[in-house]
What we know:
Immunoglobulin-like, single chain, five-stranded antiparallel β-sheet, six-stranded mixed β-sheet, 37 strands, 2 domains, mainly beta
Amino acid sequence: MNIYNISKFVAFIFVVLLIFSIYSYSNIIPPLQISSLNNDNLIIPRGNHDPNYTIEIFDSEKTWNGTTLFSNSKLGEIVEVNMLGEVVWKFELSVFGDYNFGITGIMLLSDDNILFTLNQPEELRGVYEINRKGDVVWKFLDKRVSHDAVKLHNGNVLITAAHSEDLTKWPYEDPQIFEINRDGEIIWEWHAKDYYANDPRFKNIRGNDFGPWTHVNAALYLPSDEILINIRNFNLTLIIDRNGNILDEIGNVCSKNCGLRKKIWFPHSPLPLPNGNFLISEPRFRIIEFNPEINEVVWQGPDVNRKYNIIPINIEEQYFIRAGHDLPNGNILVVDSNGQIIEVTRSGEIVWKLKTSTYSDIRPFHPKFASFYQAERISYMPPIFTIIQPQNNFIYENPIDIEISELFDVREINYSIFNVNTGIWIMVNQTFVRNTYENSLEPPIQFIGNNSISLEQGNYVMRFSASTVGFGYKDFFIPKKINYFVQDISFIIK
Length: 494
């Protein structure tokens, strides 16, 4: 073999090794937990199959893409699933001991921690904050805690508490709403008895089987700095100011014998909508949009053709609604306590349905069959940006420029570099762009990182990770890092 042919052979071998080095990195570095489904625009974080959760309906063209965070009391766990029903994260409450758990409120926080409420067992009753590792980073134990808790923009926690301490005297000593700081100190509280004890509409309501006098089950701070309070047994949702004054009563008052209720009955989980209306859940098989200006229901689901208080023949289409929230595409995520979570369009079409193995179609509803109470759809829309440099599968000389364009609503872009030759990560989580949101109502403060780096000769993979800002369905001030995207770029430094 002459020198010319030898050189050609060596060059060929070099090219083969080069190509191999470029395309074999995926077997060396941790694989991306990202994959495409059906089309390039739908990105789903992959998880593990769990036989306890089944997706019965999934119309990818009509759903709002994301993961769904919920609690399952029957199985004693908090779970996040993707649109396929695969479990991408799970927290098992068995770490607290062998109990029958009652998990009610649940909330994704801005730092990706999770706040949840336990109303049973009694000895563990309270509010807990856990990180994604499953560590309890904060807790507040109090036997008054019942339904829900919301972390506020100032770090305090607003708690609903319907567990009465004294039902032997009038007015009933129902604990109601209180705000605590991180030290557990009560800094503000509100009691219905201070405003309704002498109201003849409610004095005899305790004579029924509806539990405590008021049964307050939800409270939210609104952007107006007013507070929304839901009183189930009064069939009312209230708006109050910081001094406790009642500004508005939303709904219709009735107690045990309401007949064919045309307004609101046993309301749960009220949420304000951008149009000024309220989304309210009712346990008797529907979720409604209520217009307080005209005092009327303007939409109902999951079946818009179902007449209220009429049980459908098909038992599979009955729901015991506990909560729901609106999605950016106009759909509604609806929680059925019996063990289903559905996404329904405004026209009444169910486009996504998750069912748990603990689902029960027993009617009437009985608490022992309850699985779900609240759920939150965590948007999963990729941040919009383009990586100009480095380009995939290119050969560069030092220094190498990092260039990104077409930023849109990107909260943060970080990069890490993997040295394929040594199998070591270097320059881990370097910040390229950071948008700091001091207040969600103000423009971000932008930080641009270094755009040029020098590396030794070798094969590399640069992993870009980015997140955008979203807002949860319970809070209106705190931005959340809820939209993520990861992209790998392979290249060579000669």
